[in-house]
Design brief:
By secondary structure, the chain is mainly beta. Helix content is 6%, strand content 44%. The longest helix is centred in the middle third of the chain and has 6 residues.
Length: 98
Amino acid sequence: MKHWNSSLGIDPPLHIVENVDGKMFKRILIDEGSKINIISTTTFQNLNIPFLHIKPPTLQLKDFNDTLCPIVGSIFVPITVGSKTIQTILQVIEGDIT
């Protein structure tokens, strides 16, 4: 079993379940050490935010196999967990993330 190394100075990733505008999202990963925040087009559609709010992509993203992942674009959204709200840029990735 691999244990989280707390000497990195960041908290371990956190998996949460959150209610967003009356919809339950069961697989939210919060990782303060990540360099990018992603959301699938499938999940994005469930938020009922019009696609016209997505800005064109400004970066390229590769997966662990060094294959380019199609990025639809980015969106700036407030994310609230408990009493804390942060403004976050999400990269909208084509398809469903599993």
